[in-house]
Each structure stands twice: as structure tokens, then as C-alpha cells.
Amino acid sequence: MTKRLLLHVVLAVGAFVSLFPYLLVVLTAFKSQGQLNTTAPWVPGLPPTTANLTRFLSGDFPRYILNTLVMTAVLTAGQLVFTTFAAYAFARLRFRGREVLFWLYVATMMVPSAVTMIPLFLIMRELDLVNTWYGLLAPYVLGTPYGIFLMRQFLRTLPSGLEEAARIDGAGPLTILVRILLPLCRPALGTLAIITVISSWNSFLWPLIVTSGEGTRVITVAIATLKGGIGTDYNLMMAGGLIALLPMLVVFVFCQKYIVRSVALTGLK
Description:
Blueprint lengths: L1 H28 L3 H6 L12 H8 L2 H31 L6 H10 L5 H14 L6 H9 L3 H11 L5 H8 L4 H12 L1 H16 L3 H6 L8 H6 L9 H34 L2
Helix pairs in contact: 1-14, 3-14, 4-7, 4-8, 4-11, 9-10, 11-14
Keywords: Cell membrane, Membrane, Transmembrane, Transmembrane helix, Transport
Membrane topology: Multi-pass membrane protein
Family: Belongs to the binding-protein-dependent transport system permease family.
């Protein structure tokens, strides 16, 4: 009983530490400027106000939200298509150097993304793609090492007899992938889609580096621009953070089983 009690205490403390920043975002978003200066950060403002949310949505920020939706949709579609083709090649097709090429590609996950930002930016600048949608999407729309690893691991668990039977009937690799394997890959595709949506929606560093105009600005960069050199409107910033957080919270609540499944697919199988 003592061990169980200590375990629950540790879990409760960890949950509180994890959730406390989100609580501050919610409380600050519904405070007026006067309430922010006269109350402690963890004390709600009474009466709560929605003026900060109205101010945030009355400017150009709905356009930035739309930009983020477009970027997320394109990156997710690209990941599902190109990652599936690459994973199929690494899992099912036989060619010289397949294993070496795959593990060299997966090894790039060990390199921090911040290390590759400057080379990527220089490439985009030489191609005249800075501050364009092409420059924003190009580095990630063709797939990522994690996504290919996830799909390859799942494809390797499918019985090879399905492919052999299809080949006897005259099916080619593309037909086998599209008509036989893809319907069986729905759990893995759903997992990859959820992970891509979350990572794309929360992307900040690359959009900050490669874009500077209003037409390609995403919500994370827009919120960061609210911090000025003279002062910061924390109420408006927290209102933007709350609006940006809500879609991801909905995705997590309804799709958390896919997020957990990604750990099982890559770790156990």
C-alpha cells in the first residue's frame, strides 16, 4: 500500500508539472490587462473576459490559421503518399544495398534538426524559394525517416503469401501495394497521419527561418511576433496560444490510441 501511494504521489506531481503551463495559458487568455497586473498568474480573473480572443480573431490571425491548415494538409498528404512508396520499397522489394541504404537514411534521425536548418536555408536561397510555399513545404513533404521506419516496420509484419498469390495472378508491385497492402495498412497510416498533423501544426523553427511575408506566415510564427521590443501583450499572446492549442487537444483526445500505437509499431514489431 505504501509503494502504491508513493507511486500515485509521483504520478500526480508529474501530471501537475506537465499541465500547469497549459493552465496558465487558459487563465491568462481570459484575463483583462488590469486583472493580469493585479492577480497572481495561477489565480483566475473574475469576471473572465473573451475580449482577448475577439481581438486575436479580428486581425490577420485567421489568415495565419488558414495558412497553417494548408501547410498541415499538404505535408500530411505528402507524407502518406511518398512515405508509403519508400517504405514498400525498403520492406518488400529486393535490390542491392537495400539494408545499407535504409539504415543510413534512418541514421539521419540522430542528427538534430537545428543542425540542418542552415544548409536547408542556403539550398532554398540558391533555388530562389525563400518566403514561398515551395520553400516551406519542400524539405518535409517527400517523407521523413521516422515515417518511413514506421511504415516499413508495419509492412514487414504482413504475410508475404499475400504478395506471392497476387504475383501468380499477374499483379505488379504497384497493384499489390495499392489494392492489397494499403487496405491492411490503415492502422499504420492513421498513426502516421496523426503524428504528421501534430508535428506540422506545431512547426515553428523552419517556418520562422524560411518565411517572412504575410502570405506564408503560420500561426506559431504569428504568435511569436506578438512579443515586441518595447513590451509584450501577454493576454493576446496567451489567447493565440489557446486557439492554436485547441485543435491539437481535440486531435489528441480522439486519436490518442494512434499515438500510443506508433510506439508499439516501432518498438515491439
